[in-house]
Amino acid sequence: MYQVFSFKNLIDMYHCNRYRKMMSVTRKKDHRRFERNIRVSEKESGQTLIDLLTSRFTYLTRKKWQDHIKTGRLLVNQGRSEQEIILRINDLITFFPDSRPEPEVNKTIEILYQDDDLILVNKPPNLPCHPGGIYLYNTLWGILKERYDEFYLVNRLDRETSGIIGVAKTRKAARFYFWEMKERRIEKEYLVLVEGVFPEKLSAKGWLAADGESPVYKKRLFLSDPSAFEEGDNGDRTRQFAHTEFTRQQVYNECYSLLACKPLTGKTHQIRATLHSLGFPVVGDKLYGIDPLIFIRFPSDTMTKEDWENLKMSHQALHCRRMVFPLSQGGNVCCEASLPDSWAPLIRAGSNFPISIEKSI
Questions:
Q1: Any residues with CB less than 8 A from the CB of 9 and at least 6 apart, and which?
Q2: pLDDT at 172
Q3: At CB < 8 A and 24+ separation, what contacts does 308-313 make?
Q4: 141 near 130, Cβ under 8 Å?
Q5: DSSP state of 26
Q6: Which residues lie closer than 8 Å to 262 by C-beta, 6 or more apart?
């Protein structure tokens, strides 16, 4: 599970050094014991401790969080607490998770570009970006921590999504790139493989909302509305404006379509939820694929042979292929990342996209 921050949250972190606290790791002798620290945001202020934990960190049940509170593995402002305590903005919650082996991940990252301010990484599938849930060291953050004393992830990708991640090397650079991201001056293009024959071009504009019929809490659906506009939600938390442009690249055996996607907004699960609602689920997607219940069976290790055959790929076929970053000293760097080898069985030879880097001043 990944934690999502607003731009304002991120800027606040840099001004008050909160990012370091939230990503802090405490090693005890040779044991992989660590603590996780989070701060209560303005939106979360007024909730009880147990309600915040169960809504924000869904990888544990409410009963499990209650047990952790009772045994003192959860502290509020460095002291033991009750589950019904009312939280206030900037309260510090400390959690001491179980010390257990982390799942194996694909650690084969590739540095595509690097200068004094910026690193561009080609992240493989099956590698989380940030620590969360059962992952801490087996993350992109953990890998970079072994190489760099200071760094800040500018964008993020889901664990199973591959492609380009921007990494700022200093706080000054991080502020610059987070601002560029907020102002949408960083261009992104994805490649995605979907079930079915997709139209040649499609501009999907509308709303993302919770899928109330799904047993999976975080699953979203896309409601098409060509007249939708970004400010049209009027602060309605139940829906978010989303706009994605799709261009079909190739069709394979009249079964799959390779699409280029340009997200013009940056919402959680935007591409995957949009395609699922349009009737073209992403190949290999356990949540937004042809059978969303696979998402429930996967962590409990109850997937069947038929489940794996229906997925056709061990991870979702979504790849951040191209990004254009403004440079703080002027000009741009345009970077392209090749597809993972795992796509090869489903697409024709020669359709892979090579790595390409172009710098303009």
A1: 41
A2: 95
A3: 311/283, 311/284, 311/285, 311/286, 312/283, 312/284, 312/346, 313/193, 313/283, 313/284, 313/342, 313/343, 313/346
A4: yes
A5: -
A6: 187, 188, 189, 190, 244, 245
For residues 326 and 180, the answer to whether their CB atoms sit within 8 Å is yes
Residues 6 or more apart whose CB falls under 8 angstroms from that of 60 comprise 53, 68
d(CA 121, CA 119): 6
Over residues 181-224, the pLDDT tens digits come to: 989 899 999 999 999 999 999 999 999 998 888 888 788 999 99
What is the topology classification, in CATH, of domain 7-95?
A: 3.10.290
202 beta partners: 246
CA dihedral for 46, 51, 56, 57, sign (positive or negative): positive
Size (the chain), residues: 361
**Looking at residues 58-84, what average pLDDT do you find?**
87
Could you tell me the pLDDT band of residue 141, with boundaries at 50, 70 and 90? very high
186 three-state secondary structure: coil
Contact between residue 42 and residue 34 where contact means Cβ atoms under 8 Å apart? no
Dump the DSSP string for 42-107: TTTTTSBHHHHHHHH-TTS-HHHHHHHHHTT-EEETTEE--TTPBP-TT-EEEE-----PPPP---
Distance of CA 210 to the CA centre of its chain: 17
What is the helix (H) or strand (E) element at residue 293, kind and residue range?
none
DSSP structure class, residue 28: B
Residue 149 reports pLDDT greater than 80? yes
CA distance 204 to 243: 6
350 pLDDT band, cuts 50/70/90, is very low
What DSSP state is assigned to residue 174?
A: H
* C-alpha to C-alpha distance for 127 and 162, rounded to whole angstroms: 8
How is residue 53 written in tokens? 């934990």
The token pair at 360 is: 């303009």
Please name the amino acid found at residue 199. Answer: P
Q: What b-and-e string marks burial along 65-97, b requiring 16 or more CB atoms within 10 Å of the CB? A: bbebbeeebbbbeeeebebeeebeeebebbbbe
CA distance 149 to 197: 47
